[in-house]
Amino acid sequence: MAQIVPGVHSIDGLDHPIPTVGMVSYLIEEKPGDYTLVDTCFACSIPTFESYLSEASIDIKDINRIVLTHLHPDHVEAVNALKKKTAAKIYSHWIEAAYLSHELQYNGPPDRDALEHVLKLMGTSIDIVTEKFGNLKVGPIVIDGLLKDGDKIGNTLQVIHTPGHTPGHISLYDKERRILIGGDILFNSILNTDGLFVPPPVVTKDWQTSIVSAKNILNLKVDKLLLAHQSTPILENAQQMIEKAVSVATTQKNTVTK
Ligand SMILES: [Zn+2]
User: Fold this and answer.
1) Which of 160, 154, 155 is nearest to 173 (CA)?
2) Percent of the chain scoring above 70 in pLDDT
């Protein structure tokens, strides 16, 4: 847990059902006493989240916005509980909002069989996981503000629609500081894989589109890439690392589709 650059806090150490994956939320100071939180965590990690805030002398009631990069439970499960503790309004891409509010039923991966398989490979089981994290199902979330590509949120963050992992997945770009908060657009050195990589089809609704989204962020000037699942934050040379990850995924895609 650290302040990565002045006003950008990385809240890591949040629990995840799959070993090694972890979860990182980001807290952006818009001005003194006004914060934007990007993604939450599972409700069981709220005490960890709150202890970071108290160490950093941040009042939870100063969180005025919670932006959800996408609908997966590890990013949103605690949002209804955190809404009660903060003064925050909840934001997501308009496509994702339809699923988060349960207006539409989401039928994308990961499915239960795949999850069980991955948990077994990582030396745990669905029973152990549900004991701590509950049934991994998320109740309806009321979205207060619908976002689209190009919108500004807070003082500095620009919404970039990066679909593929889920249909309404977004990243948040701070142009001045050349920071991209990328949600699950890429993973960094988790799941026994070294380096930056495009999340695999087993957790991704439309893998080919997700590769295009990762490629498109190369059009932005990005030095620092802050992901939800990373062994370490990428604080320099993000551009070259993204290029390499896109190139590896493109080769894999061409091999699969041949
Ligand atoms: Zn995800």
Assistant:
1) 160
2) 99
